[in-house]
Specification:
10 helices; 21% strand; 11 strands; two-stranded antiparallel sheet; Rossmann fold; single chain
Length: 368
C-alpha cells in the first residue's frame, strides 16, 4: 500500500516538532508555559517559524513592477521616515502553536532523561471490553442486529402461538424477537497507580516555590500517566495541620502558620491504608517543602511514620526540597541521615527552576 505524500510530509513535520521539543526541553520545563495550555490529552507548544513569501495575483493595470512614481530613498505612502538606513540582519520572529499528545511528551521526557519503564508491583482486577461482539443482547442499535438469532426467535414465537403456516412460511419478526450483537466484558489485571502530593504551604513557601512544585508535578504526572492507564491523584497541604484539597487550591493556597510535617505524613498514611492496598496499587507519595519543621521531635516522628508506615506500602517515597529565603533546609539533612541506604527514599535539592529536570530524573530514574 503506497503512502500518500501528505502523510510523508506530516510524519516529517512531527519529527521536526519532536526534535525542537527535545532541543528546548529545559526551557519548556523551566518556563512552565505548557501547563497553561494543557488539555485532557494534548498540550499546545509554541514553536518559532519564519513566514515564507507568497505570490498574490492582481490586475497590474497601471504600471509594471518598480515603475511607479517616486525617487530613490523616498518613503512609500503611509510609512514614516526618510527611506534611508541599513538593512537589518535578524529574521522576523513568528511562532506557530502545535498540539502534542501527552504520550509523545512523556516519551520525549523519558528519552532525554533516560528514564526506565516502571515495573508495576500490584495489579487491580478491572472490567474491560474484550473487543469482539461475541455476546447477544435484547437491546442495541439496528446496525448490530443479529439476523439469524432474530429470525429464530420470531420462528419460535410463531410456532408456539400456532400462527406459523408450513405451506406459506412467512416469518415476520416483531420488537420482542430482535436480538443484537454485544461486546463481552471480562476481568483483566491492570496496573494501577496513586500519586499523593504533599506540600508545605506555611509562610516561608512563596509563589515562586509553589510554581516550581506545580511545574514538577505536571511532568511527574505526564510520565506516570504514560506508564499507568489507571491513575489516581490526591493533593495534601500542610502547615501546622494537614488537609486534602483539590488541584487548584493545592497550587494557589497561601498560609502563614507554622510547620508540622508529621501531620501530612499521618494523613497520607491514612489515605493509603483506606484506599490503596499495596497488593493492588502502586503508590507514589511526593512531599515538597523548604526544609523547615517546628521541632526535632516532630522530625523524629516523621521518620518513624516513614519507616513503619509509608515505606512498606509504597513503591517509592520522594522528598523535594525547594530553596526558600526563609527555609532552613534542615529536614532533608535529617531525612538523608535517618534513611541512608534505603533505596525507596529519594530526596532532591531544587535550588531554582533549572533544578526541576535533575529532580525529576532523581525521582523517576530508578523505575520503581
Amino acid at each position: 500500500m503506497s503512502v500518500r505524500r501528505i502523510d510523508q510530509d506530516h510524519t516529517r513535520f512531527r519529527q521536526i516538532v519532536k526534535g525542537r521539543i527535545k532541543r528546548d526541553l529545559k526551557r519548556f520545563v523551566s518556563s512552565g508555559e505548557l501547563i497553561g495550555k494543557q488539555g485532557q490529552r494534548y498540550v499546545t507548544i509554541p514553536l518559532p517559524q519564519i513566514t515564507l513569501p507568497r505570490f498574490r495575483f492582481g490586475d497590474n493595470q497601471k504600471q509594471g513592477v518598480g515603475q511607479g512614481e517616486g525617487e530613490n530613498g523616498q518613503p512609500a505612502p503611509g510609512q514614516q521616515g526618510d527611506g534611508q538606513g541599513q538593512a537589518g540582519e535578524d529574521p522576523g520572529q513568528h511562532s506557530i502553536e502545535v498540539d502534542v499528545s501527552l504520550d509523545d511528551l512523556a516519551r520525549i521526557l523519558g528519552e532525554e532523561l533516560e528514564l526506565p519503564n516502571i515495573e508495576p508491583r500490584g495489579n487491580k482486577q478491572l472490567r474491560t471490553a474484550a473487543g469482539r461482539y461475541t455476546g447477544i443482547s435484547r437491546a442495541g442499535p439496528m446496525s448490530l442486529r443479529h439476523f439469524k438469532r432474530t429470525f429464530r426467535e420470531a420462528l419460535k414465537r410463531q410456532i408456539a402461538s400456532g400462527t406459523y403456516d408450513p405451506d406459506r412460511p412467512l416469518v415476520v419478526p416483531i420488537r420482542e424477537d430482535l436480538r443484537f450483537r454485544a461486546l463481552q466484558t471480562r476481568s483483566v489485571p491492570q496496573a494501577s497507580a496513586a500519586i499523593i502530593y504533599m506540600m508545605d504551604v506555611s509562610g516561608s513557601m512563596g509563589r515562586e516555590q509553589k510554581d516550581i512544585v506545580r511545574i514538577e508535578a505536571f511532568w511527574i504526572d505526564t510520565w506516570l500517566r504514560h506508564q499507568y492507564k489507571n491513575l489516581a491523584v490526591h493533593y495534601l497541604v500542610h502547615d501546622a495541620a494537614a488537609h486534602e484539597v483539590d488541584q487548584h487550591t493545592f497550587f494557589h493556597l497561601r498560609e502563614s502558620g507554622g510547620t508540622k510535617i508529621s501531620s501530612a505524613y499521618e494523613l497520607c498514611l491514612s489515605i493509603m491504608r483506606d484506599k490503596y492496598p499495596a497488593q493492588q496499587w502502586n503508590v507514589y507519595p511526593f512531599h515538597f517543602s523548604d526544609g523547615d519543621n517546628w521541632s526535632t521531635r516532630d522530625t523524629e516522628h516523621c521518620v518513624t511514620l516513614l519507616k513503619d508506615g509509608l515505606l512498606p506500602q509504597c513503591n517509592q517515597f520522594c522528598y523535594g526540597q525547594v530553596k526558600s529565603a526563609y527555609g532552613s533546609g534542615q529536614f532533608k539533612k535529617d531525612l538523608d541521615t535517618a534513611c541512608r541506604g534505603d533505596d525507596k527514599v529519594v530526596t532532591s535539592d531544587i535550588q531554582d527552576r533549572d533544578g526541576i529536570l535533575p529532580s525529576i530524573k532523581a525521582f523517576l530514574g530508578k523505575g520503581r
